Amino acid sequence: MASTTVASELATLTRHSLAGLRMLLVLTLLVGLAYPLAVTAVGQVAFPWQSNGSLVRSDGSHTTDRSEAVGSALVAQGFEGAQYFHPRPSAAGDGYDALASGGSNLGPLNPDLVATIEERKAAVAELEGVDPADVPADAVTASASGLDPQISPEYAAIQVARVARERGLPVADVEAAVEAHTAGRDLGVLGEPRVDVLELNLALDDAH
Asked: What's the predicted TM-score (pTM) here?
């Protein structure tokens, strides 16, 4: 009698184990293989540029070929020359490092952050020839990711005179370029207006 009960329990356990294994295999195929392949296929067909990193060529046009890309519309990069619009500061690695995305993690009252902001404000004011009170917040503070590719229209506006002077262009032409690369609020209500620094600088290089 005892041996029959044990055999029955073993048989039940075996059935349950096999059922669980079958379910594991099915879910692995569906969620781990079929679903990712389907999403990848839809992305490559419907949104190839976005799916491949939103890469940008040197002439500002879009590309899916990494060998031709000079940057991504999603990731900021530094522009050191005075003829370029500058992005906001970055605390990602040595700056704009996509492998070390992150902020400084310093609170708004941290003395080190306060001192850094004051230093940046003075430097930007001197570079752009404006009053420190006119320097916008995004010119002196890094984003949470350290990779934001856009700046505010206010920060772009105080850079127009410098860029126009260094490139020998009319101020009106540079202002028009800024306006052409300014995006409004998403759906008219979400977020704030923003200027894409990479695409703006590439457009100016192409025009110049």
From this structure: 0.78
